[in-house]
């Protein structure tokens, strides 16, 4: 029997194992080799030192190569130890990632073909299948883009949906909640995307409008350009037209001279309602039709809301009762409530000498009119005091309704009132109310 024993001199610890050299056999040589048994006089520590020296040579060589590479890089690249400058260079690198015109696009919604053809967008296009021109045409068809009138410089488009929103304070400074046209919707509010698409439509040359619309400029920059409040100009007319998205309804405010007011309002109304019809067809909306309205002047809520005409009467469905929890519906037989004393008085200068008869036709108490007369003021002051009492509702409002242009027109034309039907017709036409009875 053979007795198997391990050599006493061999240490099997990993630290003392000498790596075998790779042997490439010659042709005809057997590939199996007998294991070599270390001799008795061999020192077990020597292979470990040899192995350590061999393994230490490899990193040293790599380190020398890395050192040479670093030296070469350092020789060609200037090193700036300032951390502030390193950060600024990083910011500059981020800026370089943005295509030219990016700031113009985000701040003013203006975009050029050069911007869309930048190499950073090239991955979106496929030659012969989908090009930059195809993208522009698609976005124009969907009313996302509007081509701007630009006689000089590159062809430019406008994209209102990327603009920032206006603050509440700026909104109140730019637009009054009264006096403008309200676009109300039958189902409680406009659908998504209608406002921005309408802005693109009225600005596009293809909107079938007899006149061009342009962004209102101040020192070559838009004076009011927000996602929900945009100001336009119609070059044929002085002034401006401002659109406001109140999210539950739209407002349109026209600022122009008296000479052009009626004509411009007709043009604006046609452009707005015709534009919304086009937008609905483009976006596939078939319900929630728009209707003309005003901001309700007879509100019992803190939030403004529309009132619209139905069967020749103003109807408001958003007012609440005194408890604020039940929705009621108010109908009144006048077209517009009025609060401005001096605007009313200026319209009635022609019948100032008949101020007392007008006061009676407005259903004021005769004793009240006698007290005004007893103060012995001139006729204009008497008319002013009479209208002041009328606007203060010093009469039976439950029977005759709140002060309105309709009641005023009827009082001016009344045979026992102002007796001036021509003036009454003029006021009715100016404030768009029915002719006097």
Can you give me a brief rundown of this structure?
By secondary structure, the protein is α+β, with helices and mostly antiparallel strands. Helix content is 39%, strand content 12%. The longest helix is centred in the N-terminal third of the chain and has 32 residues, at 45-76.
List the helices and strands and how they pair.
Blueprint: H1 45-76, H2 83-97, H3 102-108, E1 110-112, H4 113-116, H5 132-141, E2 146-147, E3 156-158, H6 168-174, E4 181-185, H7 194-203, E5 214-215, E6 217-218, E7 221-222, E8 229-233, E9 240-245, E10 250-255, H8 258-283, E11 290-295, E12 306-310, E13 313-316, E14 330-332, H9 341-347, H10 355-361, H11 366-374, H12 379-391, H13 397-400, H14 405-413, H15 421-430
Antiparallel strand pairs: 1-3, 2-3, 4-10, 4-11, 5-8, 6-7, 8-9, 9-10, 11-12, 12-13, 13-14
Helix pairs in contact: 7-8, 9-12, 14-15
Organism: Geodia barretti
Protein name: Death domain-containing protein
GO biological process, one term: signal transduction
């Amino acid at each position: 029997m053979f007795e198997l024993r391990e050599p006493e001199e061999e240490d099997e610890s990993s630290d003392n194992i000498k790596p075998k050299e790779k042997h490439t056999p010659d042709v005809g040589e057997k590939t199996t080799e007998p294991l070599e048994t270390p001799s008795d006089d061999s020192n077990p520590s020597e292979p470990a030192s040899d192995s350590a020296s061999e393994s230490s040579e490899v990193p040293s060589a790599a380190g020398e190569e890395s050192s040479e590479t670093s030296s070469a890089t350092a020789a060609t690249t200037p090193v700036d130890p300032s951390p502030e400058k390193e950060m600024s260079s990083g910011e500059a690198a981020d800026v370089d990632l943005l295509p030219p015109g990016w700031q113009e696009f985000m701040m003013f919604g203006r975009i050029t073909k050069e911007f869309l053809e930048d190499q950073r967008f090239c991955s979106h296009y496929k030659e012969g299948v989908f090009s930059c021109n195809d993208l522009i045409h698609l976005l124009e068809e969907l009313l996302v883009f509007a081509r701007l009138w630009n006689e000089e410089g590159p062809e430019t488009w406008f994209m209102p949906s990327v603009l920032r929103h206006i603050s509440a304070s700026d909104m109140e400074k730019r637009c009054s909640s009264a006096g403008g046209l309200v676009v109300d919707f039958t189902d409680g509010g406009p659908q998504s995307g209608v406002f921005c698409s309408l802005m693109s439509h009225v600005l596009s040359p293809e909107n079938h409008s007899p006149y061009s619309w342009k962004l209102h400029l101040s020192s070559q920059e838009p004076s009011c350009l927000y996602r929900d409040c945009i100001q336009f100009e119609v070059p044929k007319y002085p002034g401006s037209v401002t659109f406001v998205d109140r999210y539950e309804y739209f407002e349109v405010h026209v600022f122009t001279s008296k000479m052009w007011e009626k004509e411009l309002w007709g043009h604006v109304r046609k452009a707005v309602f015709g534009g919304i019809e086009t937008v609905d067809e483009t976006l596939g909306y078939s319900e929630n039709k728009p209707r003309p309205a005003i901001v309700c002047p007879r509100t019992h809520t803190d939030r403004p809301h529309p009132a619209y005409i139905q069967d020749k009467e103003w109807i408001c469905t958003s007012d609440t009762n005194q408890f604020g929890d039940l929705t009621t519906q108010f109908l009144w037989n006048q077209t517009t409530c009025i609060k401005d004393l001096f605007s009313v008085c200026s319209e009635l200068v022609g019948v100032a000498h008949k101020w007392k008869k007008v006061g009676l036709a407005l259903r004021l108490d005769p004793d009240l009119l006698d007290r005004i007369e007893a103060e012995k003021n001139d006729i204009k002051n008497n008319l002013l005091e009479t209208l002041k009492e009328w606007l203060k509702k010093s009469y039976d409002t439950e029977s005759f309704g709140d002060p309105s242009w309709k009641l005023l027109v009827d009082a001016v034309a009344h045979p026992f009132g102002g007796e001036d039907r021509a003036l009454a017709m003029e006021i009715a036409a100016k404030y768009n109310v029915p002719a006097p009875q």
